[in-house]
């Protein structure tokens, strides 16, 4: 069965790393008979500045109907200072495709990248589930008496029972599938009693459906502290949109930086959006310094989403070999270029896939 994959390189270094990821997927598809069919799309700042196009509704519907995954590079361009095109593209994909799960691994690839004394790869190895379509980022609110000394700004925190339950179930189902026994839910219900109270009620009710798992809770401020002190506690964490945004960036900080950070935006059983977290980095475009590792790890998430778990492990092993031999870009202590790192990883993938 053919699986159609849309590739949107976007802006900046996205146009450098996404094609490298696409080559890796095509290579694995050919070697292992995966039936992946990749198609490139030019949505990004260049297209927006040319004809005003961000992401046409008919294209969005085609993605929903015909494609199983989207490999995304990055968006953001100094020629569009308000980043309108970036918001319209990403928000359309996230909300119109109802990609309510933002899955972010927090995994240290080598002990030498850890900023935490005494904490290495064994301790820093978790997955965060961030609710992706609700919370404070839905932009409900407004300003009153704007521009005056009495101005009031309000941003609402929107949480639905359906939204809370489905993200919690996604984390619990993932834990069960991957043999994890403990899942943490993090909120701030001691101060945000209405939204937090809903999360608390749903979490307690779900315990009945997952008797084989230990459902635990920790306030988000305490969890942030404990991520630095005892990261080994947190193998699976689920939280809301805002807290997830903050905690996963902290997670990137303790696991080697954004150059290693992959993400998946999912609606389980439907199309998924897969993107490295690092952004478009316009200051290093064309220098050969863009780190492709996050894109390759993102490709591993994409493969797992499609049910190709063995091939996902091959990609992860190839990345491990690049890290072990320090075939890396300068941002993480290496001296290689984007293309050199990419060629090395793909060579390892070819060898492992043939074994």
Describe it for me?
It is a single chain. The chain has 355 residues and is α/β, with parallel strands linked by helices. The protein has two domains: 1-99 and 267-354, Isopropylmalate Dehydrogenase; 100-260, Isopropylmalate Dehydrogenase. 42% of the residues lie in helices and 19% in strands. It has eleven helices and twelve strands. It has helices at residues 14-32, 45-51, 57-66, 84-96, 161-177, 193-206, 220-229, 241-254, 293-305, 309-324, 338-354; strands spanning 3-10, 36-40, 69-74, 101-107, 125-131, 141-144, 152-155, 182-187, 214-219, 236-239, 262-266, 272-276. The strands form two sheets. A ten-stranded mixed β-sheet has the order 2-1-3-12-11-4-5-10-8-9, sandwiched between helices. It has a two-stranded antiparallel sheet with strand order 6-7. α1 links the parallel β1 and β2. α1 (14-32) packs parallel to α11 and α10 packs across α11 (338-354). The protein is globular and about 55 Å long. The mean pLDDT is 97.
């Amino acid at each position: 069965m053919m699986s159609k994959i849309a590739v949107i390189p976007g802006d900046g270094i996205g146009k450098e790393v996404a094609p490298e990821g696409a080559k890796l997927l095509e290579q694995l598809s050919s070697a292992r008979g995966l039936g992946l069919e990749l198609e490139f799309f030019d949505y990004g700042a260049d297209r927006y500045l040319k004809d005003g196009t961000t992401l046409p509704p008919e294209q969005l519907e085609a993605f929903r109907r015909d494609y199983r995954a989207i490999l995304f590079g990055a968006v953001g361009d100094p020629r569009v200072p308000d980043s309108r095109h970036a918001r319209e593209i990403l928000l359309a994909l996230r909300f119109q495709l109802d990609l309510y799960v933002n899955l972010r691994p927090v995994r240290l690839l080598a002990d030498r990248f850890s900023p935490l004394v005494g904490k290495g790869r064994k301790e820093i190895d978790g997955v965060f589930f961030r609710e992706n379509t609700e919370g404070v980022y839905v932009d409900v609110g407004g300003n009153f008496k704007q521009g005056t000394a009495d101005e009031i700004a309000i941003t609402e925190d929107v949480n639905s029972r359906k939204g809370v339950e489905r993200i919690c179930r996604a984390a619990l189902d993932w834990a069960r599938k991957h043999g994890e026994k403990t899942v943490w839910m993090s909120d701030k219900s001691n101060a945000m009693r209405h939204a937090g109270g809903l999360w608390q009620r749903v979490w307690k009710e779900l315990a009945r459906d997952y008797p084989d798992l230990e459902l635990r809770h920790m306030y988000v401020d305490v969890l942030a502290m404990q991520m630095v002190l005892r990261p080994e506690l947190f193998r699976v964490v689920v939280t809301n949109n805002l807290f997830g945004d903050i905690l996963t960036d902290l997670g990137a900080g303790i696991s080697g930086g954004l150059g290693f950070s992959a993400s998946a935006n999912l609606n389980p059983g439907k199309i998924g959006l897969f993107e490295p977290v690092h952004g478009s980095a316009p200051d290093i475009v064309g220098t050969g310094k863009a780190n492709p590792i996050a894109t390759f790890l993102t490709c591993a998430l994409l493969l797992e989403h499609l049910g190709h778990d063995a091939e996902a492990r091959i990609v992860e092993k190839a990345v491990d070999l690049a890290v072990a031999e320090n075939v890396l870009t300068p941002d993480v202590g290496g001296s290689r270029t984007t293309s050199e790192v990419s060629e090395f990883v793909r060579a390892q993938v070819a060898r492992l896939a043939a074994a």
